[in-house]
Amino acid sequence: MRGTIVSVEELAARANDPAWVIVDCRHSLQDFTAGRRAFAQAHIPGAFFADVETELAGEKTGTNGRHPMPDSAQFAALLRELGVGPETQIVAYDAGADMFAARFWFLCKHTGHDATAVLDGGFAVWLAAGKPVSMQEPARPKNGTFAAKPRHEMTVDAQAVLASLEDEELTLLDARAADRFAGQNETIDPVAGHIPGALNRPFKQNFNERGLFKSPAELREEYQQLGVHPKRLVHQCGSGVSSAVNLLAMEIAGIEGSRLYPGSWSEWIADPARPVATG
């Protein structure tokens, strides 16, 4: 069972293996149709497409962030439609050194499916290795038998985050770029800044120059330098997507127990009574 990442060579060796399900999660926050177009042009043979905005997010209320968590039963139904059973190995990929495969990975883990991994380097490394691609939409398989076993302990809500500002029981780690964290160059959300007391680790820092995850030893050293016990650490970002990369990187490093605040900044600022920091 693979629970964090798989290499291009590992995935290529499993071509046509019915026990493995491949999911294409390519997406752009600037163009919600970009992922579907990229999939139609070329994808890993046998891969299914998952839409970040409609299938990897729940209903937006205006106060629950840009990418609220989908209902666990709803997400489990999606997995069953892809033929997933309890023992199925899922591999999610995105363009490479990106955030969307990690989002799918986190949703699977949260819903109770452990045999889920991200393709290290994504589609870019698959292409660079000369592996085959397809334009053909795969036939939908027979429905799988996976049943949701939600792990609500993997997340915290806005109320817990607000309470922690007083007792410092939790430490937030913001995965957005440093300028957005500082309240500069904000182009996505209507309010700029960050949650008071949060630390900043842009999710791109988890990758090396080839777009692969850094080694477990490198990641372990970098996260240990934060000086925060993993069970006190809560990942967040703009809408609970890129923060999943930091959580995945910690798992690759063998550091388990951190959690995620799904609503993140876009939910936080929906209530003007919640404090905001800049700089």
What distinguishing features does this structure have?
four-stranded parallel beta sheet; 29% helix; 279 residues; five-stranded parallel beta sheet; 11% strand; Oxidized Rhodanese, domain 1; alpha/beta
Give the integer mean of the pLDDT values.
97
What strand order characterises the main sheet? Answer: 1-5-4-2-3
Oligomer: single chain
Q: What's the architecture of the largest domain, going by CATH?
A: 3-Layer(aba) Sandwich
Main beta sheet: strand number and arrangement?
Answer: 5 strands, parallel
> Can you write the helix and strand succession as a string?
EHEHEHEHEHHEHEHEHEH
Structural class by sheet pairing and helices: alpha/beta
**Count of individual helical segments:** 10
In terms of DSSP E residues, the strand content is 5-15%
* CATH superfamily descriptor of the largest domain: Rhodanese-like domain
Helix content: 25-40%
CATH class of the largest domain: Alpha Beta
